[in-house]
Amino acid sequence: MPSNARSLCASPEPTKPVTPPPSSPMHPSTPLYIPTSSLSLHPHPRETPPRRPVLSVVVTGGSTGIGEAIVTLFAEAGHRVLFTYLTRRGNAERLQSRYPHVTATQLDQAQVSSVASFSRTVDDWAGAAGVHILVNNAALGSATVRQYVHQKCQSPNFGKLATEQLPSSAVDMLMRAQNDLALMRVNALGPLWVTDALSDSIRRAADVSGRATIVFIGSVGGGSAAVFPEYCAADLMSKAALTYFSKHLAAQHVRDNIDVMCISPGATETEMFRQSTLATIPDVPAFVDSMPKRRLIQPHEIAKSVFWLSVESPQGVFHGSVLDASMGLAVRPGLQTENDAR
Ligand SMILES: NC(=O)c1ccc[n+]([C@@H]2O[C@H](COP(=O)([O-])OP(=O)(O)OC[C@H]3O[C@@H](n4cnc5c(N)ncnc54)[C@H](OP(=O)(O)O)[C@@H]3O)[C@@H](O)[C@H]2O)c1
What we know:
Elements: H1 36-39, E1 56-59, H2 65-76, E2 80-85, H3 89-98, E3 102-106, H4 112-126, E4 133-136, H5 144-152, H6 168-197, H7 199-209, E5 212-217, H8 220-223, H9 233-252, E6 258-265, H10 271-276, H11 284-289, H12 299-312, E7 322-325, H13 334-337
Parallel strand pairs: 1-2, 1-4, 2-3, 4-5, 5-6, 6-7
Helix pairs in contact: 2-12, 4-6, 5-6, 6-9
Residues 60-61, 63-67, 84-88, 107-110, 137-140, 144, 148, 186, 190, 217, 219-220, 265, 267-268, 270-273 line the site of NADP nicotinamide-adenine-dinucleotide phosphate.
């Protein structure tokens, strides 16, 4: 055996243990790979922390409820926000006039043509820096869908169908189908189309700044294993589809720096919940008292969760997650569905 060859069977020569230098990737306390973008988030304590970059944030359905709280939180933190409204133009204008760096634009995400022109507005607004954060929040609920359908089609048009010859259950189905179609288009296809149409801009932000985030606002109904039979099935089916889409998209972005997450709120005190639930309950204080944690979630609490996930959470770690934000309703749905105060 040549003297310089090592034998696998020979007893090893006593050698000094190798301690890698602290800067080495082999140092036990140093991860093997740290993306440069996340390194810059942890400045040396004695250095002056770098100024936080101003992010371009797009929020759908920002005129009221959870969306309005998200717009407000990002705007207060100094970020540029472009949000959409559908019918609440007054609310949108008030929010826009409160912050010079907030812009409102109209969108009906159930219409592909509206989504297409929205993407042009976003492109002009975001420019070369692109969209750092997209929050897909806009949706209809089991009750708010009725107004939407009423505004869109005053009288249902069933074409040449002779409805008088149909069983009454079929006629009822035809009436309900208008709501079902609206729920599926607005809640499931809308976010798919919006995300698709904005994808160039989101990719640009990820390339330029090293991080972009897409957050979907799902729901405990449809986004968890819990079943809520008191609501319209298509409402929860649309949210189940949205949750699936968030995971599908996350799987496509598993090797790049675009993070995709879904937050699934429970009973949150907004107009949607008031119309679908509180308005149908004779004793609201008793109902609320028997809900998880004896209260309703406030919109700003979901907004804070979105902000933390998209700005403050460690990059990449929550990619692909569906986060339950229901205060326990997902694990004890009976507190609502079997509630005596209903
Ligand atoms: N509140 C809850 O208890 C609860 C529970 C689980 C999940 N969520 C989810 O949380 C998100 C926000 O709900 P919220 O309670 O804040 O609802 P909300 O108060 O009814 O607000 C819904 C927002 O969506 C917009 N919108 C409605 N239809 C639209 C369409 N076709 N195209 C574009 N925008 C449209 C509305 O615009 P205009 O007001 O201008 O018409 C409004 O800004 C939704 O995804 C919802 O499913 C809510």
